[in-house]
Amino acid sequence: MIRRIHFKSGRPWSPAALLVAITVLAAAACSPGNTAAAKKDSIEYLSVVQADVPALDPAQGSTSGQTSGPLWIALYDTLVNITPDGRIEPRLANEVTSNDDATVWTVKLRPGLTFADDTPLNGEAVAAHWRRLAEPEVASPAQGDAAALKDIKVADDQTVVVTLDEADAHWPTRLASSALALIPSPAAVKQHGKQYGTSPETTVGAGPFRVKSWQRDDRVVLVRNEDYWNSAQVALKEIVYRIMPDPSLRSKTFASGTGDVNAVQTAGDDLVKLRKEHDETAWESVGGLSIAFNVRDGHPTSSRTLREALVAAVDIEPTLQRAVPGAEPVRSLFIDSSPFSAPVEMPFGDKARAQELVDGYLAESGKSSVSLTWVVNQQFSTFAQAFKQEWDKIKGLDVRIEVVQSVLDRNRSRDFDLTMSGFGGGTPRVLVDLLLSTEKATNLTGISDSELDDALGRYLTADGREAQRASLEQVQKRLVAELPYLWAHRLIASYFARDGISGLKILTDGSLDFASLKAGE
Length: 521
Known about the structure:
alpha+beta; Dipeptide-binding Protein, domain 3; 9-stranded mixed β-sheet; SBP_5_dom; signal
């Protein structure tokens, strides 16, 4: 049985997050012959982060993704969550509202909130955190989000009013899925300075758990925060958050029967097996894992003709079956159940058309063949070979795979013809923020299309679901018309639970909410 969680809000996953998966593990506590799981108040959670975090400072964190999102939310909670149907769900904040033109937003906190050091979580604490995020020396990934807050005013203990640098009808999405939502104790930040978050004693949040101990590159032990605003609903008293980046070890551990919940972020044979043996709670996102084409001048992929040939040459389902068994193809940007879904699909699976396009490109350029460089990490070499097998069937098309240590470095320098990209995250908002707008420095492909920019701009200020849907349908049409990306397969954030584990709640961008977990009856 698969329970799908269709999220329409969040942020794109980092390329690193695409390469990892997480596993929540707990020792079985059943007596021999007893099929009912005994009640437990402690579990062990094995997280597949690529490396331990240098500090548990939310300035360097995010609520997004399976890798570290659960840890940040456990320690700091989040101001708001965005539900699967796009509603704002109160957490530390009771209410988020805007003025008519969405340039001024008001955040109202719950009354009586406190940090684990007994200092108040009030408007001043929120404002202090947001101002800190904007400081260049802090070097927060959320610096751009904080810099967009042109003015921050504390109206009273429970109310913060911000003026944005431009109208944004979807600002709660940005709030919910970045470090803006993770508020540390200003007193602790001031006291410990650059050492904040480097030890249990220097880490102070207002989340459902606090840090009991931390062994670098091994585990963080979390204990329930009895002063949490909703502590009565937190069933677990302790979570051992293990750092285990080795996927084969994770797989063997869960297969041995040790684990209670297995959270997976990558497709493959292990995912196929899990789906046969366990119930699945799955988060589904906009877009997915994609191949990005560099459309800038000087690259062969600046030719729209050649980009269409690369897409048309791929029979997507058998290709994915070879590369990543269990993955779902991305035929259109939005999942079918999304209110933004439109009948716009990638033109896959027409090798005759692909050959015709390549022949035309070569005739026009006066060349006998065209060579393209595709940069990938080692983890994606099998994936790349599966697509190359499709492209090798087209005469005159030579795609060369270059395995590099850091795709991110090559992406930053725009030194690629093709590269890997996580496209979309959980919300259409990121299309505007990061990936497609001509003016954005984070526009990976270099796409510059006035019709696309116009549609994105209309979405930003759209009032009502129908206006949003119309603008995003035009976005999808322009993406298929210009083809800056080949959408490959949906991002995966799946949780497989054994008997006795319940309360699996997935927050924005696939992060598991530790506060809702229960073990046994």
